[in-house]
């Protein structure tokens, strides 16, 4: 059975029906409304941002750059496409730096330095303008190496062991001063590891062995002295006992002789 040809009148009637259902302006107006709705939805979704706990935020504006105002924890408004947030964590974070340097007596020392750091919450715009968000990698390794080498060079290798706490405090004070120039706060600076080159380590081991041998020899000398004193004391006691016996012997003999004579008479 042959198919019927489409009726031009029915197609025209369908188009008129669709146009009657559309807003005034036809398809163009409908498309514009769709685009406007999508833009409004996008703007609504991108007009808010959240600052998590332990963080601070600053805004960057396409026309004026970094704004000086800072924003705390919570939800805040921004202008979509024109502004966007830059979020900094202001919690203390650990940073470790291993370094190899020389002591005052030219011994090579391996030191690992640990510190807690954070950006100054009141200087976040300045930090972002001058250093960016990677301020830790730009600043801390250089100033830590600088301070560590200058401090270690003031002490001998043995002093680094005996005055370890003093060395840590000196490093902490100088590091805090240097980090302050970059608006970075430091705390709890300490030496977590210290070791020396193999030659110095071997020399320390030999010195310890020599000290142990000296202590052993000193103990033997003291032991011999005590034995000598015991022998002298024993000899003096025996001599005193013999003297007492020799003093009492004539008296006993005299009393015995008198008793014998009296008995005979």
Can you give me a brief rundown of this structure?
By secondary structure, the chain is an alpha+beta fold. It contains seven helices and eight strands; from the N terminus they run ααβββββββααααβα.
Which class best fits the helix and strand makeup?
A: alpha+beta
User: Compute the gyration radius: what is it?
Assistant: 48 Å
Instruction: Going across the biggest sheet, name each strand in turn.
Output: 3-2-5
Q: Kindly report how far apart the N and C termini lie.
A: 188 Å
Strand-and-helix sequence, N→C? Answer: HHEEEEEEEHHHHEH
**Largest sheet properties:** 3 strands, antiparallel
Per the principal axes of the C-alpha atoms, what is the gross shape? rod-shaped
The count of strands amounts to 8
pLDDT < 50 stretches = 1-5
Helix content: 55-70%
- Give the overall average pLDDT: 83
Discrete helix count: 7
Q: How big a fraction of the residues is strand?
A: 15-25%
Structure characterization notes:
The radius of gyration is 48 Å and the shape is rod-shaped. Helix 4 (135-152) crosses helix 6 (164-180). The termini are far apart. It is an alpha+beta fold. The chain has helices spanning 8-21, 27-45, 124-130, 135-152, 157-162, 164-180, 198-264, and strands at residues 48-51, 55-61, 65-71, 74-77, 83-89, 93-102, 108-119, 184-196.
Topology diagram in text:
Blueprint: H1 8-21, H2 27-45, E1 48-51, E2 55-61, E3 65-71, E4 74-77, E5 83-89, E6 93-102, E7 108-119, H3 124-130, H4 135-152, H5 157-162, H6 164-180, E8 184-196, H7 198-264
Antiparallel strand pairs: 1-4, 2-3, 2-5, 6-7, 7-8
Helix pairs in contact: 4-6
